[in-house]
Amino acid sequence: MHNIPERSLKIEVGEMIGNTIGSVIQVADLEDDGAGSEFLRVRINIDISKPLLRCFKLCTEGKQVGWVGIKYERLPNFCYWCGRVTHRERDCEVWLWGKGSLRKDEQQYEEWL
Ligand SMILES: [Zn+2]
């Protein structure tokens, strides 16, 4: 989870956001990633039949304080067309329906994932 305001860099915030994505297994100790980092590393169990969430609106006391970017590590498969991890892009329905007419830059998901 990137782009988190410094005062929200807390284990509880990682758990709160993580639990909207799936179920949190563990939030990494902030110390482990070095001081001054602006991200939280969270291990989460996710429902792989759904597209992955790319960002999260962070609110405190009802006010939006920023957008949290979410990146994923250690995905065995990932489809950049539809954001699912159940297949690779060549096997994607979105890709197959497009009959090869889709271009890379039309993908909803980018390599930074
Ligand atoms: Zn797909």
UniProtKB/TrEMBL annotation:
Domain of life, per lineage: Eukaryota
N-terminal signal peptide: none
Question: Record's Pfam families?
Answer: zf-CCHC_4
Domain Zinc knuckle CX2CX4HX4C, which positions? 46-93
Protein name (record)? Zinc knuckle CX2CX4HX4C domain-containing protein
Q: Which organism is it from?
A: Castanea mollissima
